[in-house]
Design a protein that fits this description.
The protein has ten helices and eleven strands. A six-stranded parallel sheet has the order 1-11-8-7-5-6. A three-stranded parallel sheet has the order 3-2-4, with helices on both faces. The longest helix is centred in the N-terminal third of the chain and has 21 residues.
């Protein structure tokens, strides 16, 4: 039976550590500020943003949500971001994606000051990660590395198989694992014989968006399995990992919900404290 990696528990620990860091910053005269920009009325985005706002307030940050109409032009949105770049009370800026069709997400992300890019999506931060330089790292993959650290699961010398190569999860995940001295294989939709590769993994990280894609016969006995997926199936939230068949084979596994998800928001708060500390 696999050990359950309790993301909710570790996210609470992370938030408590962040709240302590916020207290110290307040004593130094700085209240970390996170501003989330929400364009339009996408219901999923509204839910995510409410979660981020609440979590930031609870750790003592100044938390602001700018709700903008879905008709806003790209130039107007760039100008909103530029004002936030100049505002010394704003340490972290997050523009909730996706954006309406008239707006090029790349242009908006590029307009964020890299020093306030707590989502870690700006090319400067992505480049810093690949060069092994300091910078902000996307919250989901960084949250997974922090989860592994809390659990005392070392990745050094292990073979890590990352399934998925998106810019927000798969690619930065692979970079972080490489930086931590794992041997990394990246799989994607054009990978032939996925199972033959996942079976080699001491650590398997699934970030695909396909319910129950990874099954027990694809996992080596004793592997650590991290499930990033969030899929709706029969009105339930399920991961990319078929928990029922993988759990008996793995040594440790994250559940969905309650695994990677809570650590993502906790890591956004962690990144915002880093931004405020750098601004001191
Ligand atoms: P994405 O941008 O759609 O990327 C999915 C990746 O999976 C792509 O690289 C794709 O390959 C690959 N893929 C698709 N079908 C595959 C298959 N049959 N075999 C192997 N690889 C396959 O998704 P994402 O943004 O990375 O998100 C992935 C999942 O994680 C989603 O369920 C999302 O909701 C979830 N997520 C969760 C959190 C959290 O906090 N828990 C955060 C972010 C995302 P190609 O590149 O070849 O198309």
């Amino acid at each position: 039976m696999a050990h359950l990696i309790d993301g909710k528990k570790w996210a609470k620990v992370s938030r408590e550590e962040t709240a302590e860091a916020v207290k110290q910053l307040l004593q130094a005269g700085v209240q970390p500020g996170l501003t989330v920009v929400l364009v339009g009325d996408n219901p999923a985005s509204q839910t995510y943003v409410r979660g981020k706002e609440k979590a930031a307030t609870e750790v003592g940050m100044r938390s602001t949500v700018l709700r903008l109409p879905k008709e806003i032009s790209q130039a107007e949105l760039v100008s909103v971001v530029q004002k936030l770049n100049q505002d010394p009370t704003v340490h972290g800026i997050l523009v909730q994606l996706p954006l309406p069709v008239q707006i090029d997400e790349n242009v908006i992300v590029a307009s964020i000051d890299p020093l306030k890019d707590v989502d870690g999506f700006h090319a400067v931060n992505v480049g810093a990660l690949s060069l092994g330089l300091p910078g902000f790292v996307a919250c989901t993959p960084l949250g997974i590395m922090r989860l592994l650290t809390y659990e005392h699961i070392s990745v050094e010398g292990k073979h890590a198989v990352v399934v998925g190569r998106s810019n927000i999860v798969g690619k930065p995940m692979a970079q972080l694992l490489l930086k931590a001295n794992a041997t990394v294989t990246i799989c994607h939709s054009k990978t032939t014989d996925l199972a033959s590769l996942t079976r080699l993994g001491d650590i398997v990280i699934a970030a695909v968006g396909k319910a129950n894609l990874i099954t027990g016969d694809m996992i080596k006995s004793g592997a650590v399995v991290i499930d990033v997926g969030m899929n709706r199936l029969d009105n339930r939230l399920v991961g990319d990992v078929d928990y029922a068949s993988v759990e008996p084979v793995a040594s440790a596994i994250t559940p969905v919900p309650g695994g990677v998800g809570p650590m993502t928001i906790a890591t956004l708060l962690y990144n915002t404290v880093q931004a405020a500390t750098k601004a001191l």
